[in-house]
Amino acid sequence: MHRGRNGRSTESRYGEGIRNPRARQRALVIAVAPEEPDLSELRELLRTAGVAVAGELVQRRAQPDPDRYFGKGKLTELKRAIAGSDANLVAVDDELLPRQERNLEDAVGVPVIDRTAIILDIFADHAVSAEGNLQVELAQLEYNLARMRGLWTHLERLGGGIGTRGPGETQIETDRRLARDRIAALRRRLERTRETRSTMRQERERAHLPTVALAGYTNAGKSTLLNTLTGAEAGVEDRLFHTLDPMTRSFEIAGRSYLATDTVGFIRKLPHQLVDAFAATLEETLRADLIVHVVDASAPEDELLEMVDAVEEVLAEIGADGKPRLLALNKVDLLDPERRRELSFRHQSAVQVSAATGEGLEELHSAIEARFLSTLRPMELLVPYRDGGSLSELHDVAGEMERSDTAAGVRVRARVPAGLAQRFERFEVNGDSPDGDSPETSE
Predict the structure, then answer these.
(1) What is the pLDDT, as a whole number, of residue 358?
(2) pLDDT at site 438
(3) Measured CA distances, 263 to 225, 269, 315 (Å)
(4) 215 with 311: CB under 8 angstroms?
(5) Nearest by Cα to 419 from 251, 204, 200
(6) Is the dihedral of CA 48, 50, 51, 55 positive or negative?
(7) What is the reported pLDDT for 32?
(8) Is 399:388 a contact under the CB 8 Å cutoff?
């Protein structure tokens, strides 16, 4: 349970995590916040990582302590809580500074992991493709680079001042240099992967198919929706960050082919290392004609809004905030009629759908088609007979169109995707021109 913005206690969509006193790793969950935080998401992250939850402790303050995260008085309470819960790990619901992590470990005597480390561990476990593994390794190296000093405390310099550099400092510098070299190599390999992906994207663009990116909070049901839309067989599991690699499949609406791409899920406080490392994957969202923002409608309204805001923040961070949107409220099969009516009132432009049952799929099709058709540019063209290839291409991109044969060529009225309209501007004519007149631009 957690208290929402309306003052009511609501059930979190996440459970309590794993409660197993015999588990190998038992974490005490901690957080610093000015108000009571909801730690259910951190518990779910730990569950996904296979870590049991031994308990939780929160300190109410405006900002974490810059040196130890918790204040000195709260550290004493934390040590008692660790002993009382038999925890062997402390999990923090924030990204710690290296000195905070080091000092907190020294104070409590057990390993400390922050939110970013947990997410990186999950990504490392779920990465399947070569590109996914490269992206995860890059994110891990960048995260650990600033924390390498703590790995070599047994080799710290014995003296102080110029000329007293010891073996520890040399080892640290060596490790950092090797890490930076590896980061540079990974970036080069990912850039080559980006070029390959760009070539594949260009092939798709030549096919003139409108593209739809499924974006949303992790575990919102994007992969299930992709399967329902396209008949794909993307793996689906009830765990966070199950999908790391984008999958693109085709589907049809009213005879027109579309491409749908499932992308990596977002999350509150998504580490910047992951946003940077998965730039190539997220670029699929940036290139799409339409972003279908998939939301778990079974979440309480406060959580739903927080998830929407978290996704919008990441989309803005990668430069996709100006892209056309369609909000898809998924998992409505889990809701009662009253909640559905409430969602219809609160999110009037959204589509209610169930990826699991197929309910609302026709409405989603209609909404996608309407969003796409609204981006089409009406054009009146006169295409010379010698440009049959352009006429064939126009058929592909415009779908239905009106045409009539004239002495100078084929007169066409069509609605063309705005991004492709410039290809046909040389054939464009004034609507009042007589049929037999050939525009100067066609010469």
Answers:
(1) 92
(2) 46
(3) 12, 18, 12
(4) yes
(5) 204
(6) positive
(7) 95
(8) no
**Averaged pLDDT, groups of 10, the chain, 443 residues long:** 39 50 81 89 88 93 94 93 93 93 93 90 78 82 76 43 50 80 88 72 64 87 89 59 69 85 78 66 75 93 90 84 90 95 94 94 94 85 87 75 88 82 84 45 41
Amino acid identity of 53? Answer: V
Distances (CA, A) of 437 to 260, 381, 388, 431, 442: 42, 11, 18, 11, 11
Which are the contacts of 154, defined by CB distance < 8 A and separation ≥ 6?
168
Provide the residue type at 430 as one letter: N
Burial level of 217, CB count in 10 A (0-12/13-18/19+)?
buried
pLDDT score recorded for residue 187:
86
DSSP 55-117: EEEEEE-SS-BTTTBS-HHHHHHHHHHHHHHT-SEEEESSPPPHHHHHHHHHHHSS-EEEHHH
Cα separation, 281 vs 416, in Å, equals: 28
**Separation CA 273–CA 270 (nearest Å):** 9
Rounded to whole angstroms, the Cα distance separating 267 from 216 reads: 9
Strand 402-405 and strand 410-417: pairing? antiparallel
Q: What is the DSSP letter of 18?
A: B
Residues 6+ apart with CB under 8 A from 443: none
Spatial neighbors of 251 by CB under 8 A, at least 6 apart, are: 229, 230, 231, 257, 258, 260
Task: Please answer whether residues 312 and 272 qualify as being in contact, where contact means their C-beta atoms are separated by less than 8 angstroms.
Answer: no
Q: How far apart are the first and last CA of the chain?
A: 72
Strand-pair partners of 249: 260
- Tell me the C-alpha distance between 18 and 89, whole Å: 14
Longest dimension (CA), the chain: 94
Q: What is the DSSP letter of 266?
A: B
Q: Which tokens go with 137?
A: 């390794």
The DSSP call for residue 146 is T
Contact yes or no for 12/4 (Cβ under 8 A): no
CA distance 38 to 203: 45
Q: Which amino acid is at 116?
A: T
Q: Residue 382: beta bridge partners? A: 411
**Is residue 353 within 8 Å of residue 360, measured between CB atoms?**
yes
